[in-house]
Amino acid sequence: MTVRIGVIGTGMIGRDHTRRIQQVLAGAEVVALSDYNPEAARAVQADLAPGAKVYERGEDLVAAGDVDAVLICSTGSTHEQYVLAAIAAGKPCFCEKPLATTAEGALRIVDAEVAHGSRLVQVGFMRRYDAGYRMLKQAVDSEIGAPLMVHAAHRNPSVPEQYVTPMAIHDTLIHEIDVFRWLLDDDYISAQVVFPRKSGHAHDKVADPQIVLLETAKGVRIDVEIFVNCRYGYDIQCQVVGEEGLANLPDPMAVTLRREARLQSGIMTDWKDRFIDSYDVELHDFIIAAAKGTAAGPTSWDGYVAAISSDACVEAQQKSGQIVPISLPDRPALYDRG
Amino acid sequence: MTVRIGVIGTGMIGRDHTRRIQQVLAGAEVVALSDYNPEAARAVQADLAPGAKVYERGEDLVAAGDVDAVLICSTGSTHEQYVLAAIAAGKPCFCEKPLATTAEGALRIVDAEVAHGSRLVQVGFMRRYDAGYRMLKQAVDSEIGAPLMVHAAHRNPSVPEQYVTPMAIHDTLIHEIDVFRWLLDDDYISAQVVFPRKSGHAHDKVADPQIVLLETAKGVRIDVEIFVNCRYGYDIQCQVVGEEGLANLPDPMAVTLRREARLQSGIMTDWKDRFIDSYDVELHDFIIAAAKGTAAGPTSWDGYVAAISSDACVEAQQKSGQIVPISLPDRPALYDRG
Amino acid sequence: MTVRIGVIGTGMIGRDHTRRIQQVLAGAEVVALSDYNPEAARAVQADLAPGAKVYERGEDLVAAGDVDAVLICSTGSTHEQYVLAAIAAGKPCFCEKPLATTAEGALRIVDAEVAHGSRLVQVGFMRRYDAGYRMLKQAVDSEIGAPLMVHAAHRNPSVPEQYVTPMAIHDTLIHEIDVFRWLLDDDYISAQVVFPRKSGHAHDKVADPQIVLLETAKGVRIDVEIFVNCRYGYDIQCQVVGEEGLANLPDPMAVTLRREARLQSGIMTDWKDRFIDSYDVELHDFIIAAAKGTAAGPTSWDGYVAAISSDACVEAQQKSGQIVPISLPDRPALYDRG
Amino acid sequence: MTVRIGVIGTGMIGRDHTRRIQQVLAGAEVVALSDYNPEAARAVQADLAPGAKVYERGEDLVAAGDVDAVLICSTGSTHEQYVLAAIAAGKPCFCEKPLATTAEGALRIVDAEVAHGSRLVQVGFMRRYDAGYRMLKQAVDSEIGAPLMVHAAHRNPSVPEQYVTPMAIHDTLIHEIDVFRWLLDDDYISAQVVFPRKSGHAHDKVADPQIVLLETAKGVRIDVEIFVNCRYGYDIQCQVVGEEGLANLPDPMAVTLRREARLQSGIMTDWKDRFIDSYDVELHDFIIAAAKGTAAGPTSWDGYVAAISSDACVEAQQKSGQIVPISLPDRPALYDRG
Ligand SMILES: [Mg+2]
Ligand SMILES: [Mg+2]
Ligand SMILES: [Mg+2]
Ligand SMILES: [Mg+2]
Question: Ranges for the Gfo/Idh/MocA-like oxidoreductase N-terminal domain (chains A, B, C, D) (predicted)?
Fold first, then answer.
């Protein structure tokens, strides 16, 4: 059975997911497209999905009888409404992060899905599908004993002028916030942010670097360096220290050269290259679950917890050096981990 | 357009390629299956391709009107006949290695394809599609100057009793024979084999390890250690030394652990894991070309040259220590490299 | 000219330094020995320095006419008195850490040396002489731009029952406290200690692991994991993040093995092996300076600042999570850095 | 007891050894110097050993009553006569390589030492004292089972015009020739040399790179790449493949940097830096043995075997591609390995 997919939002990521479904992955085809700018939707139709129908309104796409499942790739502020529409229609939907722009909005989605009674929503936290993180999780689960600490870094070569301090949480740390919960099977109970000496390469409106210190319910201490003007590359580091040993996230595979008095290997500079393969895997997971009328991978609850946790981190930025508590409501049984 | 594929030979690799087309890759579906054991074909039909038709004879599958392209995964001695049938039918075909069991047979295929006038055959040398070798080729082409030497190793933990000395060439070195030609854009002019002290873990009928020394038309010297009872893992190493520097084939990505007084990372032990991703990529390449009625990737000529070169290496085994010349006829224009 | 050295304290380290001077290093000989247990001194005399004279009192050794310079290797609580005696006698002295057991005691030494008017004291912070840290300092000074952060770890496989929480500062972190000041050419202005989930391998009286967060006058943020029951090895890690790039302390040289499905190299388990070479280098530096009647390397001031900074870290342990300020008096001109 | 040493030949290496004895190592002092250019000897006397006596003739230095042991650092063609003089005088001597310029000359030294009845000669093959090779030997002896193959490389960035093809053996490979015998506890039985495509950076009189293939009595196969215009650095590689696994010579310790889109660490470019520490260790070994009136480390026999083996490799260069046998007389009992 081929899953018939409607894509809402045909910007960079919506176009790329359409290409993925049409040209790379088995099991699905794009039959509907929608964008607030209909020309954009029609351009994707022309280039990648000539058989797809273009809808003016996302809600109409969700409701269409030949649409089995929905991809939400529109601007963040519209995510909540389309996810709620998909849940109302009982259709599986994949929603790019953030699930909603507020924790309250995310909670409304959780409530709707719980009311529906089975999973319909997958949130686009693609790192859980990265081969490196999967290897790391396997090592954490089987090789190093109980995790005690995580040392991590999220570095970008540079950021544009519109990147301001809170975006270090909402746009950058958000990936670590989700993936560490999954990696450790744990939740956060406090956050603290400290600001080292600012890099001379950081522009006026961003404090850079930052160090975020998180504490989990099980007592794990996490330090994450966020450094978005590090110059040298896009570099994601993660080391988990357990009772019996340590495990490191592998660096991306690279040729080792001996050249010009240097033993050297390339470091990526464009974030788009780093987790490119995991987008294929997450959508493949979505297609398989959608064919059964349900959803897999990161849940609405994960999206909600990410929102709560990010809000605390932003507060911790504002209260530089102070420890900000994080508390969560009880997790609905729908989201019990396997 | 979906490419309708017929699969001849539904053993381990035929079944796996069928799964790949049905469940992983966009753009193709398996519509026909054939095996000398019809039960095997029907089992794959039941598990993976319920819509496919089962043929008793491979030739009938090739001839079927709804089969656009053919995958030849049957036993090696039957490859030649099915490839010739596909060429006669003007249908793209993917043929697992070897293209034929003799150089003469491979040359008959080359001649038939040349007579046809355009490419129809892709040979299953999957290493050319491996991400690591592709990175290495890019480095060889742009970072290290003219290649002068290659130091390589092909190691297996162990081999069964039926693995005898010439299989070190036909089953093991064959991958290096193809991939180094592609990596260096070069051909072999001589081979020499020397036999180190035999490992105590090697059984009676196999000389192990062996070192194969190849010389290319451009003067590159290649040494390949073949060690099929190395115990510690399945390990493929390749270092290219050029006028300006060196490049190494990357090891597969692995978590680095610090545990039990060892900095350590896992080495694969099963060859099936090592190039698993490249099978997807080679078939994706086949599907794209087949949709246009042609073939891409390793050619019939490559299959023929691999046969000639392997024969020389086996002769060099028999004449331990002696240098055996390798000569090729002129390459037909059809196989000019881009 | 051969420097004639008297050694006070002939326990493990005093015996080893005597061996070093007698059997390894040019330029000095041990002419006098003293220990609160005269038998111990006589045993070292018999084994390593038959020509040396044994003194009952360290003060008499310091005063002896044929003693040019003094090594103080006795128990920590006696360091201050012997250093002050050496300064009073105008003789160069090498003092194992700690310089004194209190910051006040260390300040008395600083005052005495300043009153003397030239350097006479070298403190035994041997890491500054380690080849790896020296390479790192060179990289920090020339390759990575202004330092912004340091991520470090100090791990021991296990500690005995008598190792209690404050010893994580006084006996373990003390090395980082000194070497980071030297590495960064900077001083601390605050300390914070957080306690992750305790390792099941840690005994009752030690909170383990701990994370110490230090802030420097220049704004560098340092995080040091102290984990003295890490099981897997004695492991010292240090990464400096600068405006232009990162530099890592090299791991000790080790053979890389491929064995038993693991790419592996050994990690040391005994701290005594880790900086063994640096003891030779620090004493060589002492001998060269002592031949000129002065001292080189880590100063009394460094010993004093280490004491002040450690005290703050112990207070930060006691005030778990709180930030404790660190302030220093002005540095006497005698200790201006080159 | 201090060993009183006479140094014959005060060029670069003789001066450096004099510095080592005077300023670095315990247990010895330079009391005599000689050079065919007496001004050179007097300059070293003035700079490093004011108490030493300068002799016009090396033989007189050897004979001097206050000289306990001799260092022979003069030009290679004079080594044999001075070593024979030292043996005649019954004095330990350290001789820089080569022991003699012909195998016959080396054999005369062996015969003289055997006639003397105990060891007096240490040959300056310093790699046996390198920490990396020592680690590798330990791994070879205990971790990888019986050695079967060695893959090695000896690379220099460039060589001067006077470096001609045979020097690749006598000046470059000579170190591998000795150190592999020690590493494997084995001897060579044949040599073959093949010439890859020549590097465009090699001048007219040197074939570069070369690959030397050696076979040992135990059946180990060794391939050594010699590449003296490799451009990128001075790089010594050695991998030993055994029945149970592999071991690699460690690269020199270096800081790992992340900078300019490269994970990188420095490679040495000057050969003088690579084994600098091993010179200290070999002379320390000489001093300790000389204090007992004997010699340790590489023997006269090792020097003789190196000469025989090099001669065969040069013949193998001249007979490009042909296998040249190597045979040795029986080893005198004086040189039985511990
Ligand atoms: Mg699809
Ligand atoms: Mg398909
Ligand atoms: Mg000494
Ligand atoms: Mg000396």
Answer: 3-125
In chain D, which stretches have pLDDT less than 70? 338
Q: Are residues B136 and B247 in the same domain?
A: yes
- Average predicted confidence (pLDDT) for chain C: 97
- pLDDT of the residue at A1: 74
CATH number at residue A20: 3.40.50.720
User: How many of the other CB atoms lie within 10 Å of CB of B15?
Assistant: 21
* Short-list B93, B149, B89, CA closest to B123: B93
Q: In chain C, what residues touch A195 (CB-CB under 8 Å)?
A: 221
The per-residue pLDDT for B338 is: 57
What was the pLDDT predicted at C338? 57
- CA of C23: which chain D residue's CA is closest? D26
Q: What is the mean pLDDT of residues C248-253?
A: 98
* Residue D337 counted as domain residue: no
Q: How many other β-carbons are positioned within 10 Å of the β-carbon of residue A108? A: 18
Per-residue pLDDT of B160-200, as tens digits, reads 999 999 999 999 999 999 999 999 999 999 999 999 999 99
Q: How many beta-carbon pairs below 8 A join chains A and B?
A: 89
Q: Are residues C120 and C170 in the same domain?
A: no
Judgement on whether residues A266 and A288 belong to the same structural domain of the protein = no
Tell me, what CATH number does D246's domain have? 3.30.360.10
User: How far B274 CA sits from the closest chain C CA (Å)?
Assistant: 13
Number of domains in chain D: 2
User: Bridge partners of C55?
Assistant: C34
The per-residue DSSP string of D76-96 comes to GGGHHHHHHHHHHHT--EEEP
**Whether residue A221 sits in one domain with residue A120:** no
Rg of chain A, C-alpha, whole Å = 20
Eight-class DSSP state of D203: -
Question: Which of B270, B286, B309 finishes a domain?
Answer: B270
Q: Same domain, yes or no, for A117 and A139?
A: no
Q: Do B197 and D213 touch (CB under 8 A)?
A: no
- Identify from D225, D238, D320 which residue to disrupt to test chain B contact, counting B C-beta atoms within 10 A and taking the largest count: D225
Report how far ligand 1's centroid is from the alpha carbon of A234 (Å).
Answer: 30
Q: Which residues of chain B are within 8 Å of residue A254 when distances are taken between CB atoms?
A: 135, 250
**D318 lies in some domain:** no
Nearest residue, CB atoms, A263 vs list D231, D265, D269: D265
Q: How far is the CA of D156 from the centre of ligand 4 (A)?
A: 33
Q: Nearest residue on chain B to A264, judged by CA atoms? A: B247
Closest-CA residue of D relative to A270 is D261
Asked if C266 and B265 come within 8 Å (Cβ–Cβ), the reply is no
- The reply to whether A260 and A287 lie within a common domain is no
Residue A332 domain flag = no
Q: D226 phi and psi, to 5 degrees?
A: -110, 120
CB-CB neighbors (< 8 A) of D284 in chain C: 24
Tell me how far the alpha carbon of residue B129 lies from the centroid of ligand 2, in angstroms.
Answer: 19
User: Do D10 and D80 lie in a common domain?
Assistant: yes
pLDDT at B241: 98
Q: Same domain, yes or no, for A258 and A150?
A: yes
Pairwise CA distance, residues D35 & D54, whole Å = 8
How much is the pLDDT for D1? Answer: 74
Q: Calculate ∠ Cα B58-B60-B66, nearest 5°.
A: 110
Report the half-sphere exposure of D98 (CA within 13 A, side-chain side): 28
The C-alpha angle A26, A29, A31, rounded to 5 degrees, equals 175
**D248 vs C259: CB contact, 8 Å cut-off?**
no
Omega before residue D209 within 30° of 0, cis? yes
CA distance A261 to chain D (A): 5
Does residue C300 carry a pLDDT above 80?
A: yes
Tens digits of per-residue pLDDT, B100-113?
A: 999 999 999 999 99
Checking if the pLDDT of B337 tops 90, the result is no
Residue A338 pLDDT exceeds 60: no
Q: Is residue A237 part of a domain?
A: yes
Q: Which domain holds residue A183?
A: 131-271
pLDDT above 90: residue C248: yes
